[in-house]
Specification:
The chain is built from eight helices and twelve strands. By secondary structure, the protein is of the alpha/beta class.
Length: about 220
């Protein structure tokens, strides 16, 4: 497929029709599924450019679908935007921690939806242009494969954990406050609470050790020299 392809997974057929119509007007190819199982299978078959994913679906909800995709080597780099009628902070944090790239509440403004899709795709393309390896301390951080090597052992971090680690390592020795980290890793047009950064740092420390990323009280974090 030469055009960018959006996979929309939602059990509301009227909404699927609306989103499909508006995305096609913008020049996107559109794939659609009305349940999580079919969404995963279509993602595996077609490798879409981006996935719009409803959270509240029967059988398998969007959080589960996102988790499956982030564990699949062929799907884990595909951007995911959640669509949901739930607007509570707990749901948003859970979704973002699973590796989602944005979170949009229903009812949906199609103009806003398309703007957010394009923003995520621009950020994704910009990140892809800067693929390289970092070697810091005993870590090799390979952005081409989203892989971390430590003393010969491979670590597959979820996408946002990896991007946070990569960004801090690329600025090692320099303190970055939480808002800067949110803007650089999640995007400056996406609302994410500060503690999302803290949760991701904690998970990185649990997997790689707590001696790489240093907490600077009252400011933020830095990757140690």
């Amino acid at each position: 497929m030469s055009k960018q392809t959006i996979l929309v997974v939602d059990d509301e057929h009227d909404l699927l029709d609306l989103i499909e119509y508006n995305l096609q007007k913008e020049g996107f190819n559109v794939l659609r599924a009305d349940n999580g199982h079919d969404g995963i299978e279509m993602a595996k078959e077609y490798k879409p450019t981006l996935v719009l994913l409803d959270i509240m679906m029967p059988q398998m909800d969007g959080i589960e679908v996102c988790g499956h995709m982030r564990k699949d080597d062929e799907l884990k780099h595909i951007p995911i935007i959640f669509l949901t009628a739930r607007s509570d902070e707990k749901t948003e944090v859970e979704g973002l921690n699973k590796g989602a790239d944005d979170f949009i509440t229903k009812p949906i403004s199609t103009t806003k939806l398309i703007s957010r899709i394009k923003a995520v795709l621009r950020r994704f393309d910009k990140n892809e242009e800067k693929v390289q390896k970092l070697k810091v301390h005993d870590l090799e951080i390979d952005k081409d494969r989203y892989l971390v090597l430590k003393d010969g052992e491979e670590f597959q971090l979820p996408r946002k954990e990896f991007e946070l680690l990569y960004y801090l390592a690329s600025k090692r020795g320099k303190v970055r406050d939480r808002q800067t980290l949110l803007n650089k890793v999640w995007g400056d047009n996406i609302y994410v609470v500060d503690r999302t950064v803290d949760v991701h740092v904690r998970k990185i420390r649990e997997k790689l050790g707590d001696h790489y990323i240093e907490t600077v009280k009252g400011v933020g974090y830095r990757f140690k020299e």
